[in-house]
Amino acid sequence: MDAICRRGENMDKIERKIEAIIDAHAKELIEFAEDIYRHPEEGFYEERTAAKVADFLRGLNLKVHTGLARTGVRADWMEQDGPNVTIIGELDAIGCREHPMADSVTGVAHACGHHAQLAAMIGAALALADEEVRASLSGSVSFFAVPAEEYIDARKREKLAREENIGFPGTGKSELIRVGAFDHTDIALTTHVHMVPVEEDLYLGNPSCNGFSSELVIIRGKAAHAAISPWEGVNAVNIAASAMNMIGLMRETFRDDEHVRVHSLVREGGEVLNSVPDKVVMEEKVRAKTLKGIEDAKEKIDRAFDAAAMAFGGKIIRKNLQGYMPVRVRKADSALVEAARDLGATYREVELTDHNNASTDVGDLTHLMPVLNFTFRGFEGSLHGADFRITDTDTAYILPAKMLALTTYKLLRKNAAQAREILREFEPVFDREAYVRYIHSRTE
Ligand SMILES: [Zn+2]
């Protein structure tokens, strides 16, 4: 309640103008979000969504670049000196065939609320592109609608690499980093619907999240008649079962503080019952809190498959696929806290001990640049579930738009003092070249 009493009290003239512009366009923003909700598209193929975002940003007289990592849309004004803040919105929907709004062909639906992010991003663009607001900033701002946040599975990756020339087809942000589309970004600003249970309107900061590695495991055995001469065969299904048993028994060796999760999926498990199965295709995903934790757990998983294959006389063919990097925790920056207070929203701040076992490709960005983040309320049902839907348009579309715009303004006003301070303190793990090298070293 304390926050509500203070609403707007400390806002300057520009901040009031930012809020007024977004309020004046609230209906348009809601329609924008709901149109995208009705037309979900899958990762790297978000053509309609991307075109809609690009048209809107062109309407604000921004220079718009399209086709980045296939569907990415980035609008900039780069001519202003000072740090660049890039506001990010995610274009893709998630596979959820049971969702009432799922696309009948692709089976994807906006069950992760990315349509709300896009509405928030264009709402922020509306306010920040205003001439007076823009003149008050000592830095540049970009609006970046990015493809494919949701995990792309192995089969689709091959097609993307082969037909679309996508170098890092596992995730949109990673491919954008690879092609240099983030080279001009100093600070990224991201948002999402709440990903962990939070009662408050806003959860400020970037909580630590698991990263993961992924691999395709092809188990080769030897076919033989299943009844006449099974001893002449090598049973690939039995190798898979043994490996999975070993992985189960290894779980006690996973460190609690690494939050390790192992997921296994059988894509192909033999052709006919009358023959000893000679081929099984599996996908394995290993999650952990740190890059080292992922590598340690993955080594154990690999050993389990190799050992099972050796015991039965089979063979493992392994293809290491790119995963997501963990999110490096970032406490709420003061710009975010001030913006939430200005707007009278209830909020909670990220604690250093908070951790989310799920993963996002925002993690990759956090290894290169400071990523300021907040999540928001305003929906019901479970994330990625058939019952997910936005129920409070003000909290899910309008409040995040104001948060993005006000935070950006606070970072870049007064000689961009807050942005410069963040950049002074930030220690990157990789630059672009080192990042690309790291991914190659883990996927070849
Ligand atoms: Zn999401």
Automatic annotation (TrEMBL):
Ranges of residues in domain Peptidase M20 dimerisation: 213-308
Cellular component annotations (GO), alphabetically ordered: cytoplasm
InterPro entries: Amidohydrolase, Bact_exopeptidase_dim_dom, Peptidase_M20, Peptidase_M20/M20A_hydrolases, Peptidase_M20_dimer
GO biological process terms held by the UniProt record: folic acid catabolic process
Record-level Gene Ontology MF annotations: dipeptidase activity; para-aminobenzoyl-glutamate hydrolase activity
Origin superkingdom: Bacteria
One Pfam family recorded for the sequence: M20_dimer
UniProt cross-references to PANTHER family, sorted A to Z: PEPTIDASE M20, PEPTIDASE M20 DIMERISATION DOMAIN-CONTAINING PROTEIN
Name of the protein in question: Peptidase M20 dimerisation domain-containing protein
Species, as recorded: Blautia hydrogenotrophica (strain DSM 10507 / JCM 14656 / S5a33) (Ruminococcus hydrogenotrophicus)
